[in-house]
């Protein structure tokens, strides 16, 4: 009797484990399929937008009407942004693809700057027309190479998840058709950058050479692993996977990740100096037990422990049970908006769940801040008189072209809505208006 009972229990156990294993397998497959579909969509959208981009640039070259030229240039800028966004969705972190991304960014800057100026007073110069001709030729070559890759992907049923695994594992034996295709695209762009590309485009990027505060001292992979373990706050028994970015990356990185029980984490640190650019912890956050004030203190202490100094809280928000805080430096009572750092805090126990410091490390530097040419009262007159102003300060911000300007920032309300109004401290022009969530404004 006991024997049969034992056999029955063992059988039920085996069936239970089998069912559990099958469910786990199905869930894993569902995640992989979702990721694969996302990669495929981004890739085919990229090829589609490059097709449209090539055609639009060609149409621009054939135009003679200045009234039609500005909308066409704005459309080129929009398509460039869409293409650039799709590149960012592909698993190319470990593949040097920065030349192509840089080209798309510079083409967007060039077309936008040209679109917003008065072409009646300042028509396209011969040099700019030559730049457009180079853009047309270059976008055509990129379009052609992407079409070749797309054709192979469709005909041979290639999977992007295999690309990601090959990049992570440095697997030279795997089918690297997609990787080789993108390397060809990168070489094509690099060839233009070094030779055919007109200098007027290559100089349009408004971003300065960033990341100047990283230092020159590189840390080893072992040192990076130790630092990553400390930053992710995981014990020695938890396995951490550390990879490096490919050669030629704009900022060489070490990327670390782990998974333990129902929690996982990911982090990027710079090879120069070992500074954390992004960090993310994924886990279930239960009912909130601490408020935003306490969470703010925890975020401030966390940044101090990482040696970030002279930071002030810009805004705070609560999403579900997570507090999200933005901090920026203050120099002589001037708020430095481009150097923003974001920290996420779990409101159930105060754990740090996220850090985004890329903008800080890219933009932070010693700045020469000039005195405003207009007074606060003069700037206030440029604000909508119906807006009830509660607070104001001076700030360094980026304008639509990505150039840093000094501005007066007015925080106020209109009806039930809250706004930030940015007035240029030199010209008095309204730079932009931001509508805020009610919880964001601080009095």
Q: How far is the first residue's CA from the last residue's CA? A: 77 Å
The share of residues in helices is 40-55%
Largest sheet: 13 strands, mixed
Gyration radius, rounded: 26 Å
Count of extended strands: 13
Globular, elongated, flat, extended or rod-shaped: what is the shape?
Answer: globular
| Approximate strand percentage | 15-25%
Structural domains: how many? 4
Mean pLDDT: 81
Q: Please mark out the parts with pLDDT under 50 across 5 or more consecutive residues, or reply none.
A: 194-206, 439-443
Q: With helices defined by DSSP (H or I, 4 residues minimum), what is the helix count? A: 11
* Secondary-structure element series: HHHHHHHHEEEEHEEEEEHHEEEE
Which structural class do the helices and strands define? alpha+beta
Structure, explained:
Helix 2 packs antiparallel against helix 3 (98-116). The protein has four domains: 21-202, no CATH class; 210-273, no CATH class; 284-366, Nuclear Transport Factor 2, Chain: A (Roll), CATH 3.10.450; 376-440, Nuclear Transport Factor 2, Chain: A (Roll), CATH 3.10.450. The radius of gyration is 26 Å and the shape is globular. By secondary structure, it is an alpha+beta fold. A hairpin with a 5-residue loop joins strand 8 and strand 9. Strands 1, 2, 3, 4, 5, 6, 7, 8, 9, 10, 11, 12 and 13 form a 13-stranded mixed sheet that branches. The protein is built from eleven helices and 13 strands. This is Germination protein YpeB. It holds the Pfam family YPEB_PepSY1-2. Residues 373-433 form the PepSY domain. One of its GO terms (biological process) is spore germination.
């Amino acid at each position: 009797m006991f024997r049969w009972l034992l056999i029955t229990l063992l059988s039920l156990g085996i069936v239970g484990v089998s069912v559990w294993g099958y469910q786990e397998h199905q869930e894993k497959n569902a995640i992989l399929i979702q990721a694969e579909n996302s990669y495929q969509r981004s890739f085919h959208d990229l090829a589609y937008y490059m097709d449209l981009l090539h055609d639009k640039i060609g149409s621009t070259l054939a135009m003679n009407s200045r009234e039609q030229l500005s909308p066409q240039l704005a459309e080129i800028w929009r398509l460039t942004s869409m293409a650039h966004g799709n590149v960012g969705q592909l698993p190319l972190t470990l593949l040097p693809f920065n030349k192509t991304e840089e080209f798309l960014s510079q083409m967007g800057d060039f077309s936008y700057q040209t679109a917003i100026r008065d072409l009646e007073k300042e028509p396209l110069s011969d040099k700019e027309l030559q730049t457009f001709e180079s853009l047309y030729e270059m976008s055509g070559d990129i379009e052609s190479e992407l079409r070749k890759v797309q054709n192979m992907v469709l005909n041979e049923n290639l999977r992007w998840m295999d690309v990601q695994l090959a990049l992570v594992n440095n697997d030279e034996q795997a089918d690297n058709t997609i990787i080789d295709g993108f390397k060809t695209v990168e070489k094509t762009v690099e060839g233009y950058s070094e030779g055919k590309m007109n200098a007027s485009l290559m100089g349009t990027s408004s971003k300065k050479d960033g990341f100047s505060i990283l230092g020159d001292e590189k840390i080893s992979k072992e040192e990076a692993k130790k630092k990553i373990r400390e930053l992710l706050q995981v014990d020695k028994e938890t396995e951490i996977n550390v990879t490096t970015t490919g050669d030629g990356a704009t900022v060489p990185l070490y990327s670390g990740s782990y998974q333990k029980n129902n929690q996982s984490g990911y982090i990027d640190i710079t090879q120069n100096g070992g500074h954390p650019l992004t960090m993310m912890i994924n886990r279930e956050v239960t009912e909130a037990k601490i408020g935003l004030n306490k969470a703010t203190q925890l975020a401030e202490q966390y940044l101090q422990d990482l040696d970030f100094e002279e930071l002030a809280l810009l805004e705070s928000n609560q999403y579900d049970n997570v507090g999200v805080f933005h901090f920026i430096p203050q120099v002589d009572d001037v708020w430095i908006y481009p150097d923003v750092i974001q920290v996420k805090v779990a409101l159930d126990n105060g754990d740090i769940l996220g850090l985004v410091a890329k903008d800080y490390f890219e933009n932070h530097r010693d700045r020469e801040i000039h005195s405003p040419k207009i007074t606060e009262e003069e700037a206030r007159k440029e604000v909508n008189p119906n807006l009830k102003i509660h607070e104001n300060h001076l700030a360094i911000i980026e304008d639509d072209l990505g150039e840093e300007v000094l501005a007066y920032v007015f925080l106020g309300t209109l009806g039930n809505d809250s706004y930030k109004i940015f007035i240029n401290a030199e010209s008095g022009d309204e730079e932009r208006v931001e509508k805020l969530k009610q919880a964001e404004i601080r009095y």
